[in-house]
Amino acid sequence: MVVEDNPMNMELVLFVLQSNGMEVAQAVDRTKALELTKGYRKAFAGNVISIMYKAC
Predict the structure, then answer these.
(1) 33-36 LR contacts (CB < 8 Å, sep 24+)
(2) Contact 5, 26 (CB under 8 A)
(3) Which of 41, 4, 53, 29 is nearest to 15 (CA)?
(4) How much is the pTM?
(5) Other beta carbons within 10 Å of 2
(6) H/E element holding 8?
(7) DSSP state of 2
(8) Contact between residue 8 and residue 16 where contact means Cβ atoms under 8 Å apart
(9) Are 45 and 23 in contact (CB under 8 A)?
(10) Tell me, what DSSP letter sits at residue 41?
(11) 36 CB contacts (<8 Å, ≥6 apart)?
(12) H or E stretch including 27?
């Protein structure tokens, strides 16, 4: 599952993962991600990466 609120980042990550044969669930925030996991029958595997950019 990819949880990302930036559309460009989401597009890039989805492209990379799907190009490597992965099935990817996607959500734009943690609330949507939790909702998805409740109804999802498959196990999720992967890493959690959090990148935050500080405004200058």
Answers:
(1) 33/1, 33/3, 36/1
(2) no
(3) 4
(4) 0.71
(5) 19
(6) helix 7-19
(7) E
(8) no
(9) no
(10) -
(11) 1, 25, 27
(12) strand 26-27
